[in-house]
């Protein structure tokens, strides 16, 4: 049993015959809409409402899949303890035992992890009930986050082998590590865990973290994401974004069954069809990432969206371009409206043609809708990714030929109200592809230079983004040849992601009248060691973090797109200046 005042039920040895029983699985019960607005220690009202529904069902026990408190406050230990105290009070309302799974909001760093262990015990364990065995795994162990590996994997193999004769087996974990389109995806799950689940005939796997309900089937094993226990919901209610929990019924013979309990009413397990959300999210990613509007390029462009339906049924997709606030949309893109049916397993592309666009305000937005059996299941609006076209030079003497200028409202990513014009913050950059390395020179206008603070966000500094791969714009992710860095006023360079450092890289920062100047040099020798050498065309962007009096912060990007940290598709395009 896990939790203050919680006790388990039944001896549950694997030799004990199965008796029919039910249990409940709920996930992500942390506050999203707290009982007391503004109180970071309060409990979700929707979770408290679900407790009433759970008690009416009289389950043998409840498994909470994690993210039980708001968390992320190691700097305030009294508040953290109070959050757990409030959670324990909510547990006391349950009429049955509770078993807990560690979530990232519960153990986000070592100190929070240690406190969780002290209060509730080990992060992974197993328990038994009436002939069934239940295995609780952790995706949040420090140093092994988002993986089941090391001692935990060894323990899991041993437990499965020890209880191989248990009539029923269920597995619980916070994050659905099998989702390949998520940043926490774990290849080890496919390589190490899934074969074990098959070998030992696990009956079902449950995870939370994502704030919706979604069923899966992998190698014949039912998987479930159930994260609608109380935290703020994801989008698309038709695709599982509603408050709920699962009731699992374990019979004497036959397979266990699962029902979705929503507002106290039982719904069938296929209330969200398998792969429908996966398909919709895939379409949304394609619309977000497949086509980039290149500003100031001097030419029009062909926009192609390659779409695929992994859902078993045919769906209809409807695309409609809306004006971006500048030019009339009919003068920018054609056709303006397009709809098509997507059949399972038959990819197709939707193609548009766009005229030359010079200003961010003229880039139209793309609204989309997806229908399944005539019913609208999801919709959204895509702010098309944009990138500026610019030039690099081969010598400082040619600086007048290629200026990368940050000077307009269209380039303000955040803190628009804090930006007071060109004197407040603007910049001109030159990228030099020299004989021994890449040199970026930036002159920043800033009427209030702040170089001292408690964190990177509280000091003025620059960010620079590089993608040196020949086809980098199509890859989207940061890997060898693509990285970004922060040039700090103390002369340090912080490279991202981890392991992307360029040996021998140097920076020089100096104050000048009306602002400051930054040079960043990346030697070719260092680029060859950890990355690749730039070709005649490569992708680049830079941003300015401007901190002013009173704590206001503005972020301006040359490309005008804040997504550079997440995808290299948004970077500007550089070619050689003539």
Describe the protein's architecture and organization.
This protein has 578 residues and is of the alpha+beta class. Helices cover 16% and strands 33% of the residues. Strands 13, 21, 23, 26, 27, 28, 31, 32 and 33 form a 9-stranded mixed sheet that branches. The longest helix is centred in the N-terminal third of the chain and has 15 residues. The protein starts with 20 loop residues before the first strand and ends with a strand.
Structural descriptors:
single chain; 578 residues; alpha+beta; 6-stranded mixed sheet; 8 helices; 16% helix; 33% strand
- Report the sheet-strand fraction: 25-35%
Which outline best applies?
A: globular
Low-confidence stretches are: 3-14
Radius of gyration, CA atoms, in whole angstroms: 27 Å
Q: What is the number of strand segments?
A: 33
**What is the helix fraction of residues, given as a range?**
10-25%
Q: Kindly state the mean pLDDT as a whole number?
A: 88
N- and C-termini, Cα separation: 72 Å
Largest sheet: 9 strands, mixed
Multimerization state:
single chain
> What class would the helix/strand composition place it in?
alpha+beta
């Amino acid at each position: 049993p896990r939790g203050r005042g919680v006790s388990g039920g039944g001896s549950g040895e694997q030799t004990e015959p199965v008796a029919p029983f039910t249990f409940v699985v709920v996930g992500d019960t942390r506050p999203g809409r707290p009982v007391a607005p503004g109180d970071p220690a309060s409990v979700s009202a929707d979770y408290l409402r679900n407790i009433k529904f759970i008690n009416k069902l009289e389950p043998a026990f409840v498994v909470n899949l994690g993210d039980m408190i708001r968390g992320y406050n190691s700097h305030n230990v009294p508040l953290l303890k109070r959050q757990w105290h409030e959670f324990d009070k909510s547990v006391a309302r349950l009429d049955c035992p509770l078993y807990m799974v560690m979530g990232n909001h519960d153990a986000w760093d070592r100190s929070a992890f240690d406190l969780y262990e002290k209060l509730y015990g080990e992060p992974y364990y197993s328990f038994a009930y009436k002939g069934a065995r239940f295995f609780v795994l952790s995706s949040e162990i420090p140093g092994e986050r988002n993986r089941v590996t090391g001692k935990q994997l060894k323990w899991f193999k041993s437990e499965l082998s020890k209880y191989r004769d248990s009539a029923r087996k269920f597995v619980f974990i916070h994050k659905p590590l099998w989702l390949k389109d998520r940043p926490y995806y774990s290849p080890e799950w496919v390589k190490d865990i899934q074969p074990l689940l098959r070998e030992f005939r696990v009956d079902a796997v449950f995870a939370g973290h994502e704030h919706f309900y979604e069923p899966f089937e992998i190698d014949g094993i039912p998987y479930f994401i159930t994260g609608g226990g109380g935290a703020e919901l994801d989008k698309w209610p038709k695709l599982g974004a509603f408050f709920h929990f699962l009731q699992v019924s374990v019979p004497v013979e036959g397979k266990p069954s699962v029902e979705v309990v929503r507002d106290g009413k039982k719904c069938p397990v296929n209330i969200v069809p398998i792969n429908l959300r996966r398909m919709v999210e895939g379409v949304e990613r394609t619309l977000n990432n497949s086509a980039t509007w290149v500003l100031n390029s001097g030419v029009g462009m062909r926009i192609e969206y390659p779409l695929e339906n992994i859902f078993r049924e045919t769906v209809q997709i409807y695309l409609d371009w809306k004006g971006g606030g500048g030019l009339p949309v009919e003068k920018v893109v054609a056709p303006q409206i397009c709809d098509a049916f997507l059949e399972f397993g038959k990819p197709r592309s939707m193609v548009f043609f766009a005229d030359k666009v010079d200003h961010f305000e003229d880039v139209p937005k793309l609204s989309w809708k997806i229908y399944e059996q005539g019913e609208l299941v999801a919709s959204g609006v895509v702010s098309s990714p944009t990138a500026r076209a610019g030039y690099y030079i081969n010598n400082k003497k040619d600086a007048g030929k290629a200026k990368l200028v940050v000077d307009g409202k269209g380039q303000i990513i955040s803190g628009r109200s804090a930006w007071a014009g060109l004197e407040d913050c603007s910049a001109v950059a030159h990228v030099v592809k020299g004989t021994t390395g890449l040199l970026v020179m930036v002159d920043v206008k800033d009427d209030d230079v702040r170089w001292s603070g408690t964190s990177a966000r509280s000091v003025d500094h620059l960010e620079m983004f590089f993608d040196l791969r020949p086809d980098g714009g199509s890859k989207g992710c940061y890997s060898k040849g693509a990285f970004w860095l922060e040039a700090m006023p103390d002369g340090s360079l912080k490279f991202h992601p981890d392991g992307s450092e360029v040996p021998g890289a140097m920076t020089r920062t100096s104050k000048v009248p009306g602002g400051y100047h930054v040079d960043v040099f990346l030697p070719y020798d260092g680029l060859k060691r950890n990355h690749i050498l730039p070709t005649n065309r490569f992708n680049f962007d830079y941003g300015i973090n401007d901190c002013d009096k009173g704590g206001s912060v503005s972020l301006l990007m040359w490309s005008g797109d804040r997504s550079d940290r997440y995808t290299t598709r948004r970077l500007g395009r550089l070619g050689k200046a003539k």
